[in-house]
Amino acid sequence: MKQEIIKMLSRVKYYLIFSLTLSLSNAFAQPYIYYPKPIVNSLNQSDIYRINLSTGEDNLVIKDAGRISQILWNSDQTNLFINQRYSQEDVIKLDNLNKKVILSYQPSTRFSIIGLHDAPKINRVIIEYGNEDDEYINTVIYNWNNYEPIDTINFDPDWGTILSKDEKILYSITADTIGIYFSAFDLLNNTLLYKNRKINNFIRPDHMYYDEVDARQGKVLFLGSTQGYEGLKIFVVSPDSGLYFNPAPIPPVRSKGYLSANADYVIIEQLHLVMDNIKANIGHEFHTGKIQIYSAIDGDKITSLDLPSSKSARILIFDNYPNMFYYYNYENNIVIPVDLTKLHIKNSLSGSVKVSVTKTDSISKF
């Protein structure tokens, strides 16, 4: 998930959108991408469609949904969190595609959702709000059943927040030139347990930088180096116990990292920066299709994958499919499901699915 499926953040952050595997009804038996499709001849109004990543089907879900700036969803994809032009949040429950608005929130300032945690084990939903520039405002804890607010906390995390595996503790992540720090909030008793606890043996000197981060199941993934991409290494960290293993080196190229939904695997995607305008320092990342899989338990490399390269591919991870990731290329509308327990793909397109939407209707619009 630090999931970026709908909206890429301008600074190093991650979306923690999914946090639980639930038993699903037939209506929600496949992973979906929800996206807004503009209505022709309207004033920025959109319908909401969804793409079934297993079949490629593209279906209308909500008609006349408004002027949408953002769509997120919970772990079993039965609730949509819809941001209307950064000014109103609607939580819409989908029950066999019957729509019911269960929360309509209008704060005093324009906002976006920058973090979302499902915690049904303890009957909680945690939403982090930011302004239009994704600068942190506050964190609101809601009742999971009726979305009544329970408490508001102010963490102001540098790198977002993470739920403990048992969902009882919310950690925030901050950093300075000395190290990485965690603060812990007890979600059952609404109390701060500790603030800015430094991880032992995890030093962040002035010349150390950290690139992409991701977090799931009480683990946090960092990619760090003291030598730029030449010395890039994997760090998998627990807020309470520290490092899982000595930092593991990865290929010395521009990379993006992900944790699998069950947090047993680290997925490293190799990227190439293409400069569109050198003078203006404007460019885009080209997805090479070269992916390495490592163990998140001991750091050992498991295998390498060579998938089709594209400027418009992305890796999607869903917690209701804990052993899978989906390599979605919306340039040619191909979805390649990868089962991390069966990493022996002989043909990079084996098991791929052709998506039935056009390029103009794809998630490239997000």
The helix fraction, in percent, is under 10%
Could you tell me the number of beta strands?
28
Structural class: mainly beta
Quick one: biggest sheet? 5 strands, antiparallel
* Helix count, DSSP H or I runs of 4 or more residues: 0
| Mean pLDDT across every amino acid position | 76
- The end-to-end distance, rounded to whole angstroms, is 16 Å
The proportion of strand residues reads over 45%
Are there runs of 5+ residues with pLDDT below 50, and where? Answer: 1-29, 344-366
Keywords:
single chain, 366 residues, mainly beta, five-stranded antiparallel β-sheet, four-stranded antiparallel β-sheet, 28 strands, 52% strand, globular, disordered C terminus
Structure report:
This protein is mainly beta and 366 residues long. The chain is 0% helix and 52% strand. The chain is built from no helices and 28 strands. Strands 16, 17, 18, 19 and 20 form a five-stranded antiparallel β-sheet that branches. Strands 4-5-6-7 form a four-stranded antiparallel β-sheet, with no helix packed on it. A hairpin with a 4-residue loop joins strand 8 and strand 9. The chain starts with 31 loop residues before the first strand and ends in a 12-residue tail after the last strand. The N terminus and C terminus are likely disordered.
